[in-house]
Amino acid sequence: MSETPVKAGLEGVIAGNSSISWVDGQKGRLIYRGYDIHDLAEHASFEEVVYLLWYGKLPTRSELEALSNELKANRQLPDEIWQMMRLIPRTAKPMEVLRTLTSAMSAFDTSEYKDQTTREANLHQAIRLTAAMATIVAGYERMRKGLEPVAPDPELNHAANFLYMVKGERPDDLEARAFDMVLVLHADHEFNASTFAARVTAATLSDMYSAITSAIGALKGPLHGGANEQVLRTLKAIGEVDKARQWVIDALGRRERIMGFGHRVYKTMDPRAIHLKKMSQELGQRAGDTKWYEMSEVMEKVVHDEKGLYPNVDFYAASVYHSLGLESDVFTPIFAVSRVAGWTAHVLEQHGDNRLIRPRSNYVGDDNMPWVPLDQRG
Questions:
Q1: Are 30 and 37 in contact (CB under 8 A)?
Q2: How far does Cα 345 stand from its chain's mean position?
Q3: Is this structure's pTM higher than 0.90?
Q4: What is the C-alpha separation between 358 and 46, in angstroms, rounded?
Q5: Of the candidates 362, 24, 48, 71, which has an alpha carbon nearest to the alpha carbon of residue 187?
Q6: What is the mean pLDDT of the chain?
Q7: How far apart, in whole angstroms, are the C-alpha atoms of residue 245 and residue 60?
Q8: Domain segments of the chain: what residues?
């Protein structure tokens, strides 16, 4: 038994080296490959961020065009995946479907890279998964509503095409930019639970599909993914702006947790929430209904005044997604549609300099127990 103290949830424990992203919790900064998230949110497309995470540098125009074309070429799913999707009960949750069909994509990878873990093979699979996961989420969203899937539009970028495939009509410029920024903001976030799950799987020299399926399984848990869905439920339960303050006061008085606030690492406002807050307001103003934004703003002030907590990325993401006309139980799959860029980058990094991840546990059970024969056990 170890005398070394163990922090629950490995809080603050450094589990490895990475050059992909960094969270400066004290200053409220998020860095992708040296670039501040504020600059990326304002100026970068999701495709540029994908290239940055995978290759460690911003792409040239020709490099960006090549990657964009590869993603577009891999948007369509194998016929067998569509058949499987049609067999899944319409009562299945979108995250269940995404987890199952992402795993199944491996079986229908007929390329020369099947079951390989070289960088070339991993990049092939990363492109395939980043493109296909968006189609899986959009396709099932249509099917469960009794609608036929919409074919991808090769003229649209990744973000705009996803909204088009969900809604059946092209998004306007504000909607497309808002969703593109959402994807940029969620693309990576250090060694969070799902990313670490992907790296643990990859460290066994398992393949990219297995690692990303592991990540989706971890994201499905409500303590990692799902908070934005619960935020929207809270907003709907409150109902009106003038009820928001008292609702929060009463909930805190009952010692209930207000979803969308606080973070394990950030000690200030989550930098991603700053951009989502602004976008929530812009989308509300465009729609002529700022109720969701105004309720959120009241909640933010009360929770900070009463508990000293700041909103995290999930809080304003909820009203942004809702303003884009997206169903609440698809919020977490959308998170995965973005975070697959980071997950795959971490698999590339893990396989590039691999060592099996095998931590020890601090044993707290009994010791030196005497053996009792079977017929003497009471």
A1: yes
A2: 14
A3: yes
A4: 34
A5: 48
A6: 95
A7: 49
A8: 21-221+328-352, 227-323
Query: What are 378's two structure tokens?
Result: 């009471």
- 263 labelled catalytic: yes
What pLDDT is recorded for position 4?
63
Q: Of these residues, 314, 322, 346, 351, which one is catalytic? A: 314
Q: Is 21-221+328-352 assigned to CATH 3.30.70.360? A: no
Say which CATH topology domain 227-323 has: Cytochrome p450-Terp; domain 2 (1.10.230)
- Rg over alpha carbons for the chain, rounded to the nearest Å, is 22
**Residues 293-322, mean pLDDT to the nearest whole number:** 95
Q: Which of 24, 38, 153, 224 is catalytic?
A: 224
Reported residue count of the chain is: 378
Is the pLDDT higher at 235 or at 227?
235
- Catalytic hit among 263, 275, 346, 351: 263
103-143 residue pLDDT tens: 999 999 999 998 899 999 999 999 999 999 999 999 999 99
Token pair belonging to 60 = 């040239």
> Alpha-carbon distance 297 to 303, whole Å?
10
Q: How many CA atoms within 13 Å lie on the side-chain side of 313?
A: 24
Under 8 Å CB-to-CB from 86, ≥6 apart: which residues?
143
Beta pairing partners, 29: 24
Catalytic-residue membership of 224: yes
